[in-house]
């Protein structure tokens, strides 16, 4: 090994962690320390707050925080906060919002809000025997055992909605599940759900041990493998949509409204049937969704996992959005499974998260679900609109221009030259370098 393992790294001070990293991995180069410390917050209390969000923290990783205005959602005009580093995401969402603002805006419907979790266990017994035990004794005991845990949630209108016994023995020998559905109101509810499930595991073990209908051999075979929520929530779902007469689409790219509608629908259909395209198509949707998820202090990894699992729910990975052009009406929509919260976690701690939620009018969890679905739909509309008209590179590379120029240390004067230079041209990396060399050699 080139380096030595470290003991007690987590117990070192922040400065101690930095000193060790620089000595062990960075040849003692103190310039790296400057990179880390320049991103520290000047307010020590605020920096301490950020340090305590995670473990072994040595700095903050900044991400651009932008605003996409003009979103008319269910009659309310909103400006969406978006934390994202990819060029053109905020611009595309903003452009789509402006496109739809005079056509009725975005409409949303909460289809369901159920969240799920499982107690996974192995039990060598007959399925019908276990089902009888569950129906006539265990289910009631599980609900009773979690009454203290669910009390506050029930007072807010949520709690455990149902518990089912699932027989999975055809897929894995002796494998069963307790599958529970929950309503966690305005919280994402991960801790609440996991606490309930861990109690389910304890109660299951206790009740099986006391059940006379099971033999000692059966009782000894019981193994609680794990108790954990599922990030796949196909019954916690929101629909967002836009629609207008095809004659009102009024795209400014030079093609007719009818051709635009036809090409747009074909692009969506291709994403519905072709997984290679669907993957990129849905990635673009999640550009919009994740940016607002991060800005509001929610878990973008859970959001991603759920959306992509849902996209493959029929056995083939497919588009999350859909489009029709029937009877002269253009309709474009998304059904997005998403579990988010507006209380608990970072929502009560991170200053920018609190700002984001205030900017959005302090939405409920359901209202935030709607906003996120709209953000994804708008992003997808913007991307497809470019793809079927001017092509994706014209807008994307124009936004990427400053990234390229910054790599080469361009001055403000040089940047302004390139803004003018590419006013009627498509930006390319090669063209930027070539023109920059000419400019500097003059």
UniProtKB/TrEMBL annotation:
Oxidoreductase as UniProt keyword: yes
Recorded catalytic activity of this chain's protein: (R)-mevalonate + 2 NAD(+) + CoA = (3S)-3-hydroxy-3-methylglutaryl-CoA + 2 NADH + 2 H(+)
EC numbers: 1.1.1.88
Protein family per UniProt: Belongs to the HMG-CoA reductase family.
Key words, A-Z: NAD, Oxidoreductase
InterPro entries to which the protein is assigned, alphabetical: HMG_CoA_Rdtase, HMG_CoA_Rdtase_bac-typ, HMG_CoA_Rdtase_cat_sf, HMG_CoA_Rdtase_NAD(P)-bd_sf, HMG_CoA_Rdtase_sub-bd_dom_sf
Top-level taxon in the UniProt lineage: Bacteria
Name of protein: 3-hydroxy-3-methylglutaryl coenzyme A reductase
GO biological process, one term: coenzyme A metabolic process
This protein's pathway: Metabolic intermediate metabolism; (R)-mevalonate degradation; (S)-3-hydroxy-3-methylglutaryl-CoA from (R)-mevalonate: step 1/1
Any one GO molecular function term: hydroxymethylglutaryl-CoA reductase (NADPH) activity
């Amino acid at each position: 090994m080139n380096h030595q393992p470290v003991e007690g790294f987590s117990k070192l001070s922040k400065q101690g962690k930095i000193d060790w990293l620089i000595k062990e991995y960075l040849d003692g180069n103190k310039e790296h320390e400057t990179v880390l410390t320049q991103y520290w917050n000047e307010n020590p209390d605020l920096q301490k707050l950020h340090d305590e969000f995670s473990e072994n923290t040595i700095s903050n990783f900044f991400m651009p925080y932008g605003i996409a205005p003009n979103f008319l959602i269910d009659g309310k005009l909103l400006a969406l906060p978006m934390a994202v580093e990819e060029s053109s995401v905020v611009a595309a969402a903003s452009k789509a919002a402006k496109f739809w603002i005079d056509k009725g805006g975005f409409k949303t419907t909460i289809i369901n809000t159920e969240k799920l979790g499982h107690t996974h266990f192995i039990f060598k017994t007959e399925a019908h025997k276990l089902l009888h035990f569950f129906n006539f004794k265990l289910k009631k005991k599980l609900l009773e055992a979690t009454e203290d845990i669910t009390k506050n949630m029930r007072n807010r209108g949520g709690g455990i909605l149902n518990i089912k016994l699932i027989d999975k023995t055809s897929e894995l020998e002796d494998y069963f599940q307790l599958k529970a559905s929950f309503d966690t109101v305005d919280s994402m509810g991960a801790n609440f759900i996991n606490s309930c499930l861990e109690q389910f595991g304890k109660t299951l073990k206790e009740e099986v041990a006391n059940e006379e209908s099971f033999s000692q051999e059966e009782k000894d075979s019981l193994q609680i493998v794990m108790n954990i929520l599922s990030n796949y929530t196909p019954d916690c779902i929101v629909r967002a949509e836009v629609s207008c007469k095809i004659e009102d689409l009024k795209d400014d790219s030079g093609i007719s409204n009818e051709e635009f509608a036809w090409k747009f629908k074909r692009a969506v259909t291709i994403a519905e049937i072709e997984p290679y395209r669907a993957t990129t198509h849905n990635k673009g949707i999640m550009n919009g969704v994740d940016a607002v998820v991060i800005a509001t202090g929610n878990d973008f990894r859970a959001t991603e996992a759920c959306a992509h699992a849902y996209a493959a729910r029929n056995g083939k990975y497919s588009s999350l959005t859909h489009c029709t052009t029937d009877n002269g009406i253009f309709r474009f929509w998304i059904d997005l499974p998403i579990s988010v919260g507006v209380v608990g976690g970072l929502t009560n701690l991170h200053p920018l998260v609190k700002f984001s939620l205030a900017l959005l009018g302090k939405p409920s969890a359901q209202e935030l679900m709607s906003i996120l679905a709209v953000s994804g739909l708008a992003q997808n509309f913007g991307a497809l609109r470019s793809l079927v008209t001017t092509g994706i590179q014209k807008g994307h590379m124009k936004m990427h221009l400053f990234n390229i120029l910054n790599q080469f240390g361009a001055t403000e004067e040089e940047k302004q030259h390139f803004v003018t230079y590419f006013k009627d041209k498509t930006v390319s990396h090669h063209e930027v370098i070539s023109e920059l060399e000419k400019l500097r050699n003059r």
